[in-house]
Amino acid sequence: MARALRLSTGSATEVTARLRDVRLLTEAPAPSQGRGRPTTLLRAHPQGPVALALDLRQGSWRSAIVTLDGSFQDHQSKRHRSRRPQVVISNLQREVGRAHQVYGARLRVVSLAAPGTIRDNRLMQAPTLGWAELDLETVTAGTGLRLFAGNDATLSGVAEARTGAAAGAGTALHLIIEVGIGGTLLIDGVPAQGASGAGGEYGHMALGDRTRICPCGARGCWDLEIDGRALARHLKEAAPDDPYAYTEAVLQRTDRTARRAVVKVVAALASGIAGLVNAHDPDVITLGGLAIPLRAAAESTFEDAYLDGLMTFHRTAPPPVLSATHQPDGPLRGAAALALDHLTSEPAIAAWVAEH
User: First-to-last CA distance in the chain?
Assistant: First the structure.
């Protein structure tokens, strides 16, 4: 870093000393590499600022403390006893309160990934959870901590663009299937979230049967063609209570009926991705969640439907479709990245230095 910033050795030493004095970084001995003067490595200070990252899933939630170097500590993971919003939010409140009690003034911010449309820290709707509008600020109520909330698929895309399969791409498209499909378009690592932050709801494009009404309120959503609900429909079985688990179960089956259902879903997935490529012209597409095993279960069907849906000029060098690196931690790592953006901002560092 000193070389990149063209700092002299003396300046680098002085800066490091100041960062150490205000408990942002510390120096630790580097692993021995034989003869010669031993060197040190910079690490996050053990008494430095931290963030709490939360990942809300359909059936569970996870949390981790994030240090300045992006490391995770103090992992927690719990299944929902109930999916009622009051119960789930209360559990998250308790986790924030626990972290606040343990880390005290070191805890500076909370970042939350949630499976729904989010605008200004409000969950506008979460069809997969069956939730309507909900104020997420209540998660940090009474702590004075700032909350950053984001869509889980968007934050998963941020993680891939920063340190995953899309790292270095100028324009990247990230898609993730759990219950329905979500995603984001990233330009130089920054998600294009629209006028109110609700962009990236690709699952609610009208790429499906217009006679079907989606839980979101729209007709013909792509969501209804590419997950466990579609598989159950093709198999003439009842709509599953847990489409994610149902999809996993169908993927384990070897009978022809299940195979045909999977092929139909994979074709619908690949065709939709091709349409998004025609619209956005990305350098790369990354897939997360159930999109990875679905594609693997019918690879040739995926490739054929993907190429067939591309405009002719794209077919000579189609954008690669890659599996996400941060599986299954994408949303949590994206939430951590959002928190680190705040922790390392000039106002946040100035506030920390003033206190130390």
Answer: 25
The owner of tokens 């384990």 is: 252
Domain total of the chain = 2
What is the CB neighbour count within 10 angstroms for residue 193? 17
Contact 92, 56 (CB under 8 A): yes
pLDDT band at 113 (very low <50, low <70, confident <90, very high): very high
Q: Among candidates 290, 237, 284, 233, which has minimal Cα distance to 266? A: 290
* Phi, psi values for residue 287, rounded to 5°: -115, 140
> In what order do the strands lie in the sheet containing 122-125?
117-119, 122-125, 134-135
Backbone angles phi, psi at 334, to 5 degrees: -65, -40
**Residue 17 maps to a domain:** no
Sign of CA dihedral 41, 46, 51, 52: positive
- For residue 175, give both structure tokens: 């898609």
Query: Per residue in 272-286, pLDDT tens?
Result: 999 999 999 999 999
The whole domain housing 122 covers: 50-155+330-355
Evaluate whether residue 242 is within a structural domain: yes
Residue-wise pLDDT for 77-100, tens only, equals: 888 888 888 999 999 999 999 999
Q: Render the burial of 98-136: b for 16+ CB within 10 Å, e for the rest.
A: ebbeebeebbbbbbbbbbbbbbebebbbbbbbebeebeb
In a 3-state reduction of DSSP, which class is residue 183? Answer: strand
The residue among 279, 277, 284 whose CA lies nearest residue 170 is 284
Residues 216, 334 within the same domain: no
